[in-house]
Amino acid sequence: MYEGIKKAKSGDVITDRSKEMERWVEHYSELFTTENTVSEEAINNISALPALDELDTESTIAELEKTINSLIDVMASRNKYATFSNGIKVPLLGLGTWKSKPGEVKNAIKTAIDAGYRHFDGAFSYENEKEVGNAYHEKITDGTVKREDLFITTKLWATYHRPERVEYGLRLSLKALQLDYVDLYLIHTPMGIQYKGDDVLFPNGENGEFLADDICPTETWKAMEKLVEKGLTKSIGVSNFTIRQMEDILKIAKVPIATNQVENHPCLDQKEMTDFCKSKNILITSYSPFGSPDRPWASDKDPNLLEDPVVKEIAGGKGCTPGQLLIAYHLCQGFLCIPKSVTPSRIQQNFQLEKPRPLSLLDVRRRQIYGLPRTISR
């Protein structure tokens, strides 16, 4: 464990805030919230940091600035990870596959792997897992990556909430994905739906009524825990759950909730949720981090974050795109972030964190991203 002051050596782990940085530059302090392993390359770039009273010359200050920038490079690098409460690491930035159409998603994932992405989010209900699986298989087979290099998430659909169907639901996904296990398995929604066949996501009754299933999420969770015991998934979590619903699970859980995946962005602030999850050591995964302007139920009156004047002004000042700025908004707060794209240039662009990396959360506040109107209703 790296404890500060001394020069880091290969294999040291920097956790929480850098002690030196905390003394000198409060402006950057909120960048240092996740655990990072020091590499040989980082050591070559980072010298032992001097004490504050030693900074008495312009050259020393210039060297300090260089050191700070090098440390920022390490802490906000493309390989930045967060750690679940069970000790498993997950890349903060991933690629989402919701609304990624067949014929597009395979190339998107292969492009992302080539660009350096290692975290991928999917779901049975996205109806594209077979093509997603083909992309994983090809990239593993050609030697670009190993299976253990990838962090793969999928989700239990609502028609498989009954305990006797939970494992079956996961095995359907594993077959399509051509995998023996996933890294994270989420309950996609707290509400169950009656099972009417594997190809029926939203069954209706004779009169068109919605067929909800009377099954408590706590019962589903107990079955999810058995999947961890069997090695079919390494971690389990939830998606679109309320605080109350998570509290119910926490009362009976033997395996901790790794994350709650929710829509989260400046126009849909989830502060109460994020505060609760932080208090319970549950990570937040932000889906639709750009506000999902292409969602089917979008209103013309809803703000478009990527076109918002404030976002564009800040991004221009930082020399980055609005998308990169919004990704930084999430990563600076320690959220996992899974923007979706099937456009190769945007996939690569979203992963280029070196441009917005000096952006601290204090910068974000000062430039009023938090002041954007909260007018999106869900």
UniProtKB/TrEMBL annotation:
<keyword id="KW-0560">Oxidoreductase</keyword>
<dbReference type="GO" id="GO:0016491">
    <property type="term" value="F:oxidoreductase activity"/>
</dbReference>
<dbReference type="InterPro" id="IPR018170">
    <property type="entry name" value="Aldo/ket_reductase_CS"/>
</dbReference>
<dbReference type="InterPro" id="IPR023210">
    <property type="entry name" value="NADP_OxRdtase_dom"/>
</dbReference>
<dbReference type="InterPro" id="IPR020471">
    <property type="entry name" value="AKR"/>
</dbReference>
<dbReference type="Pfam" id="PF00248">
    <property type="entry name" value="Aldo_ket_red"/>
</dbReference>
<comment type="similarity">
    <text>Belongs to the aldo/keto reductase family.</text>
</comment>
<feature type="domain" description="NADP-dependent oxidoreductase">
    <location>
        <begin position="93"/>
        <end position="355"/>
    </location>
</feature>
<protein>
    <submittedName>
        <fullName>Alcohol dehydrogenase [NADP(+)] A</fullName>
    </submittedName>
</protein>
<dbReference type="InterPro" id="IPR036812">
    <property type="entry name" value="NAD(P)_OxRdtase_dom_sf"/>
</dbReference>
<keyword id="KW-0521">NADP</keyword>
